[in-house]
Amino acid sequence: MITGHLLSAADLSKDEALNLLSTAKELAAITDGPNKKLPTLRGKTVVNLFFEDSTRTRISFETAAKRLSADVINFSAKGSSVSKGESLKDTAQTLQAMGADAVVIRHGSSGAAKRLADTQWIQAAIINAGDGTHEHPTQALLDAFTIKQHLRNDKSDLTGIRVLIVGDILHSRVALSNIFCLQKLGAEVRVCGPVTLIPKYIESLGVKVELDLHKILEWCDVANVLRIQLERQQIKYFPSLREYSLYYGINKKLLDSLNKEIVVMHPGPINRGVELSSDAADSSHSIILDQVENGVAVRMAVLYLLAGAKG
Ligand code: CP
Looking at ligand 1, which atom is closest to the CA of residue 57? Predict the structure, then answer.
């Protein structure tokens, strides 16, 4: 972790990742009881600074901050002075003047979170909630937490677990953060998708590529299915969504045809009927809602360790 911030999973050491996961487990156990609220961040201010749309991440950070008794400011670029041309610097300095202790930033530009952390515009802990096609570290941590909960609760890390990431790897910050985080925790990661949606550098990260979905599903313990990010695709990477779904979509019939039990994950939002059918998303294979639930505990741990450390 770059001291005081969470900008990428690549920055995290194995010990830091394990510490975040064990802190999340402790916080989940406490807030699972009748008293969901802890006084830990009373008097601290957490700002959710969202320049891009979000459902899960924004609500999850808001819930996490409130469970720790922080004051929460939700800032969405839509409806703010950003639409009048206000710069990131002026927005950050405004938040500094309001006394923000932690800023959770989602931005369409890769590197936006690091820019906030590197400048002296604001002294708060900066937490990357997804920057362009770069990284989404808290998604990777909650995915690791969920995999561990289902498949390795007795072990300290994910050694021996085989994770397949399927789909639009090229545009996915979730894929990159998952690769860095899961490998550090001992898992083996492979990717599958149309060759046009697999970045050429991927094998340099120690990730093998497989183009045959059925074959590689027989290899994995976990299939993490990604959304086709049409909003980031300026050109056509495959002939049609129907064809994509035929070759790379996961449905219950396919899962039931495997010679082993696997679990299916998806960071959301799901394009139902494209990368994942409804009967698979809602089946007993799916641990998607556990990911959402665990997101709150993981983000509580991140806020606790970062905002809690601010003087
Ligand atoms: N997984 C995720 O980042 O979802 P949102 O875009 O809804 O936050």
Answer: 8
Query: Which two structure tokens, joined as six digits, stand for 111?
Result: 């590197």
Q: How many CB atoms lie within 10 A of CB 309?
A: 12
Dump pLDDT digits (tens) for 222-260: 999 999 876 766 768 887 899 999 999 999 999 999 999
Whether 136 and 177 have beta carbons less than 8 Å apart is answered as yes
- Collapsing DSSP to helix, strand or coil, 50 comes out as strand
Q: What is the C-alpha to C-alpha distance for residues 24 and 44, in angstroms, rounded to an integer?
A: 19
- Does ligand 1 have an atom closer than 6 angstroms to the CB of 178? no
pTM recorded for the entire structure? 0.95
State the Cα–Cα distance between residues 191 and 130, nearest whole angstrom. 20
Residue 81 pLDDT? 83
Q: State in Å: Cα 156 to ligand 1 middle.
A: 27
Round to whole Å and give the CA distance between 241 and 63: 35
Q: How far is CA 100 from CA 24, 139, 250, 292, in A?
A: 23, 23, 43, 26
User: Which residue type does 306 have?
Assistant: L
Q: Is the model's pLDDT at 33 over the cut of 90?
A: no
| Closest CA to ligand 1's atom 1 | 267
For 58-97, the pLDDT digits (tens) are 999 999 999 999 999 999 888 788 878 889 999 999 999 9
pLDDT, one tens digit per residue, over 130-154 is 999 999 999 999 999 999 999 987 7
> Considering the chain, what is the average pLDDT of its residues?
94
Identify whether the C-beta of residue 57 lies closer than 8 Å to the C-beta of residue 130: yes
With a 6 Å cutoff on the Cβ, whether 268 touches ligand 1 is yes
